Amino acid sequence: MSSPYKTVALHTFGCKANFADTSLLSSTFVKRGYSIVPFENIADIYVINTCSVTDNANKKCRKLIKNLKGRAPESIIGVTGCYAQLKPKEIIEIPEVNFVVGMHDKYNFIDKIESLSSNQKMLFHSNDIRSIENAFLAYSLNERTRSFVKIQDGCDYSCSYCTIPKARGKSRSVKIKEIIKHIYQLEKNNVNEIILSGINVGDFGVDNDESLLSLLKEINRCSNIPRIRISSIEPNLLTDDIIDFISSNQNFMPHLHIPLQSGSDYILKKMKRRYTVKSYCDRILTVKEKIKDCTVGVDVMVGFPGETEKHFNETYDLLNDLPVSYFHVFPFSERENTLAASMNKIIDLDVRYARAKILRKLSKIKFQKTHDDNVDVIRPVLFEMIDEGVMSGLTDNYIRVQTKVSSKAKVNQIANVKLLNSNSGIMIGSTL
């Protein structure tokens, strides 16, 4: 008996690895004969791929679910991802939710939901997350010009605030041979940029006697894709050899995202991070010295238990002094079954939000300085889209650029652009 459902809409919360996972799930639906429609449209099935880094991420998911059922009452709604793995019973009890899929069943549940009606529920979940042995290679094709390629999943770290090991399992990597095979496929689809993504990318190969550096070298040897980026990488795993390799190979982009979390050694120790302020500074300065014009992004957390005004000021001063370009700022969020959730000296929510606001203001200042430093500079831009006579794309060092439509450049082509000025967080340029 064939399924009564024909269309699927998917939505993603969270990290680049999640976007790659959603793309793989989308292609799995297509292979089963489904049509993928925009999430704003009416669909037979909605699937939400969730994040659970903060409680706010969970709230956004619940709000989206309630809004969905209001406009598509006959549709069935499913939830997968980290939130689904950590809180399956909480989610399945939401009246509007029809099915919840944990990590074990993330890619093999489709046939099981085809008999579901809009008033029925199903739960696919296993608590034994550490038993997952394989990493599924996933990549996105939604952006046409760029693709997130998930090369690694899970994490062996034990940061005191983080639920990811419980949601994703142990660190595991896709074999280099398989990654290269799929990169060839991306080349055939005219993808001009790939972003190597994962939960802990720097740990790539720890489970199979390979390494991130070996992967980078093999991609460099085999691939003709002109742009390759590495997504967020832990500072203790960003080795001198990796930095040197990026600096000496022009198809690896001068842009890195290196999480800090705190500028206080006291707080870093409480977080169970694997570096010190001094070693973090060394990584940033080495990157800036060796990789010409490299843009560096930072993750930072405020309001961790025990974070005094002095500790916060240490973080502020460090970020102000370091040659970094922007921050992703997160107020500390208590996550159930983490060490940090039971710590004393809890910081009031209003203090957390106030500190986050201060750092976001500083991030804008640093971001503007990056733009100012690039005025009158010529940089290669991969154009991604045209909208109302304006072309938009990213420089090699991850600056968003807009230009007037020109015969000198096309979507999914790289062209040299002179950067002229900054407007509302975007550089305005002229195609050469």
Q: Could you explain the architecture of this structure?
A:
The protein is 33% helix and 23% strand. The protein has 432 residues and is an alpha/beta fold. It folds into 4 domains: 7-127, Rossmann fold (3-Layer(aba) Sandwich), CATH 3.40.50; 133-231, Transcription Regulator spoIIAA; 253-373, Transcription Regulator spoIIAA (2-Layer Sandwich), CATH 3.30.750.200; 378-431, OB fold (Dihydrolipoamide Acetyltransferase, E2P) (Beta Barrel). A 6-stranded parallel β-sheet has the order 2-1-3-4-5-6, sandwiched between helices. Strands 16-17-18-20-19 form a 5-stranded mixed barrel. A 4-stranded mixed β-sheet has the order 7-8-11-12, with helices on both faces. A hairpin with a 2-residue loop joins strand 19 and strand 20. The mean pLDDT is 91.
Descriptive key words:
432 residues; 13 helices; Transcription Regulator spoIIAA; single chain; alpha/beta; Rossmann fold
Morphology call: globular
Total of domains: 4
CATH class of the largest domain: Alpha Beta
**How many beta strands in the DSSP annotation?**
20
Number of DSSP helices? 13
Helix content: 25-40%
Please tell me the CATH architecture of the largest domain by its name: 3-Layer(aba) Sandwich
Q: How much strand?
A: 15-25%
Instruction: List the quaternary state of the chains.
Output: single chain
